[in-house]
Amino acid sequence: MEELTRLEERIMQCIWDYQGEVPFLDLIEMVKEKLNKDYKRTSIRGYLFRLEEKGYIKVTKKGRKAYVQPLINEESYGKYQAEEVLDRWFDGSAKRLVSALGEKLTKEDGEELRGILDDFDFDDNHNKNI
């Protein structure tokens, strides 16, 4: 997966929020509203072209209208980003990541994490860094 810029991520968020094939004109309005900035059609089109080149979306024309469809779902992208943070900042150690987040975790978060960890099936070949 290729990296996205912050603006490309925010445009993708608009596409994911729509939950389906987004009409191009609706997407322009969503981006303007969500980002609180008046982007020109040509600017949005340029970002969509780059997102399509990176394999995140597909733009199709039906008659005179263009539609944008996500090719990668939000959950897959989130997992990719989590792995990138883990590798880049914590040398692949989930234990170090959780430790770094320790100050932000509430008691409820900790209990929920314990439950999640209890559900994992740990073996020697997988999840070594937890």
From TrEMBL:
Keywords: DNA-binding, Transcription, Transcription regulation. It comes from the Bacteria. Transmembrane segments: none annotated. Belongs to the BlaI transcriptional regulatory family. This is BlaI/MecI/CopY family transcriptional regulator. It comes from Anaerostipes hadrus.
